Amino acid sequence: MAVSITELLKRSVLFSGLTPEQLEQIAALSRKATYNDGDVIIQEGAPSNEVYIIREGMVEVLISKIAVADVPGAPQLTPIVRLGNGQFFGEMALVDRGARSATVRCAKDGTALYVIPREDFWELCDSNHHIGYIVMRNIAFDLSFKLRHQNLQARLTEAGGGGGS
Amino acid sequence: MIYKVSYAVVGKPHLGMMIDQDTAPQVGEQILLGADDEVCEIVEVQDLMPPMGDFAYLHVTCKPVEET
User: Fold this and answer.
1) What is the average per-residue pLDDT within A120-140?
2) Using an 8 Å Cβ cutoff, are B5 and B60 in contact?
3) DSSP letter (8 states) at residue A75
4) Distances (CA, A) of A10 to B9, B18, B55
5) Chain B residues with CB inside 8 Å of A82's CB?
6) With a cut of 0.90, is the ipTM above it?
7) Is the CB of A153 less than 8 angstroms away from the CB of B10?
8) Which of A150, A161, B6, B30 has the maximal Cβ count within 10 Å?
9) What is the mean predicted confidence (pLDDT) over A117-142?
C-alpha cells in the first residue's frame, strides 16, 4: 500500500507538532525528486532556493578544502557526513537565504527526496504563523543536533588521531 | 518512537552519518558506514539531546572492525 506524502512528512522531525491539515498544506508545496549515486543535488556557493527531505536513500555532504579563485581546477571536496532516511538538508536556505554552504551529492541509486521551494514555504509561514513557529523551532532543534554531532565527531577525531581520507 | 541517530567513528571523521531509525542502536552491533561500507562496531550509545515529541536523539560512537 502506498504511503501518502502527508504520512511521510509526519515522520520528519522538521514537521513534528503540525496537525494533519497543516501537513497537507506543506505536502501541497512539495515535489518528489529521485537521484542516482554521484548526482550533485546542491553545489557549494550556489544560490539557495529549496529545502530537501530524504524520503529514502543516502546523500553525502562535502565541503571544499581549497576554494581559491586564481587556482585552476576544481576544489578538492572532503566528505563530512552522510545523511539517510528522514534527514533534511538545505534548511539554512530557509533561515538565512545565503549561498549553499556545502555540496550535497547522492550516495545511493534511487535516492528519493521531497523538495520544498523556499519562497512558497515562506508565504505559507507568513500566512500561518503557527506553522512558521513550529517549523523554525524544529529547524533550530535539528541544527543543534547537527552541531552536537560535529562537536563529538571532532573530539573523536582528535582522540583517534586520524585525519580520514 | 523515531530515533534520530548520529554516528561517529573514532579517528575516521569522513564515516559520520545521521539517520532516522525505528529501533534504537545497541552496543556490540555492527554497521556499515561510508562510501566503502566499512564495517564498524558500536561501542557506546548516549542521549545527545532530550527527546522532542516522537523523536529521540542519540549519539553512537563506533570503532572500525579490524579485518583478520
Assistant:
1) 93
2) yes
3) P
4) 30, 18, 11
5) 16-18, 33-34
6) no
7) no
8) B6
9) 92
Cα→Cα distances B53→A4, A17, A85, A141, B7, Å = 21, 7, 18, 12, 22
Indicate whether A164 pLDDT > 60. Answer: no
Secondary structure (3-state) at A25: helix
Contact state of A157 with B11 under an 8 Å Cβ cutoff? yes
| Cβ contact A125:A51 at 8 Å | no
**Calpha distance A124→A67 (Å, rounded):** 36
Tell me the pTM: 0.84
pLDDT-based confidence at residue A73 (cuts at 50, 70, 90): low
- Nine-digit cell at B8? 561517529
Q: Which residues of A touch B53 (CB under 8 A)?
A: 13, 16-17
Cell of B63: 570503532
Q: What's the rounded Cα separation, in Å, for the pair B3 and B51?
A: 9
Cell digits of residue A131: 506553522
Question: A5-158 falls under which CATH superfamily?
Answer: Jelly Rolls (2.60.120.10)
